Amino acid sequence: MNASSCSLCKIWNSSIGKKYLVAITGLVLVLFLAGHLGGNLLIFVGKEEFDAYAKSLHELLHGAGVWIARAVLLSCLVIHVAATISLTRANRAASPKYGLTILAFVVYHLLHFTVRIDSHLAELAKTSPHAMVIAGFQNGVVVLFYVIAMTLLCSHLSHGVASIFQTVGLRSKKSAPLIDKLSKAYAWGIWAGFISIPTAIYFFQFGA
Ligand code: HEM
Question: Which of 184, 152, 147 minimizes the C-alpha distance to 165?
Fold first, then answer.
């Protein structure tokens, strides 16, 4: 099979195909962020609720659910960033700094809370993911890193969400102001929600 006959290659080799790949993977990531934020905000509801939520995620489809979600998310993130890089290269535009920075944050975040390279956090996670998150945000440098990463992520989202509508042809001259406002509101909501967790824990000793 050569490059011109494989349908995935055809999508990749056309600029409109790549734009759709960016839009579809972007939409999956945008929806994931809302779901991930909703789940994480349970931290403010209570220890039992948050731990029960984390346990239910890990037990989904007898443990396969979380791995399916990881594979889908990782593929979406890699395709999203790679297609953006390729598009901006072709257009000789500025390098897609957001994508790479967010990718770097996700790698750090996975080492922090999923792989748990810190053995203290790994030990806490065995009995309570809630305790792990509280302990994970006791360090000011870590909190600052999360705040910077969330700010970059959300400034990207504020125009990224509107771009999805643009690519699928739903952003007309008439609807553009409303779509741009919704896009900004969504980004601010995601930013405020995610920022609230490390800052409440570090600055207001939430969970101590
Ligand atoms: C303050 C903000 C955040 C907190 C407190 C948080 C918390 C967590 C926790 C506790 C886990 C581990 C879930 C588990 O395995 O039990 C996790 C996983 C994950 N987070 Fe976050 N997260 C935050 C922000 C983000 C952001 C902004 C992104 C995306 C850009 C993200 C992407 C992921 C991904 C992809 C996973 C892996 C899912 C898995 O393998 O289970 N997180 N997060």
Answer: 184
Within a domain: residue 73? yes
Q: For the segment 36-53, what is each residue's pLDDT rounded down to a tens digit? A: 999 999 999 999 999 999
184 is a domain residue? yes
Residue 9 lies in a domain: no
Phi, psi of 172 (to 5 degrees): -90, 175
Answer whether residue 178 is part of any domain.
yes
From the CA of 176, how far away is ligand 1's center (Å)?
A: 32
Residue whose Cα lies nearest atom 15 of ligand 1: it is: 114
CB distance 101 to ligand 1 below 6 Å? no
| Opening angle at CA 187, ends 22 and 197, nearest 5 | 115
Q: Residue 126 is which amino acid?
A: K
The residue whose CA is least distant from atom 2 of ligand 1 is 194
> CB of 198 closer than 6 A to ligand 1?
yes
pLDDT digits (tens, 9 = 90+) for 72-86: 999 999 999 999 988
| Domain boundaries, position 36 | 15-203
Count up the domains in the chain and report the number: 1
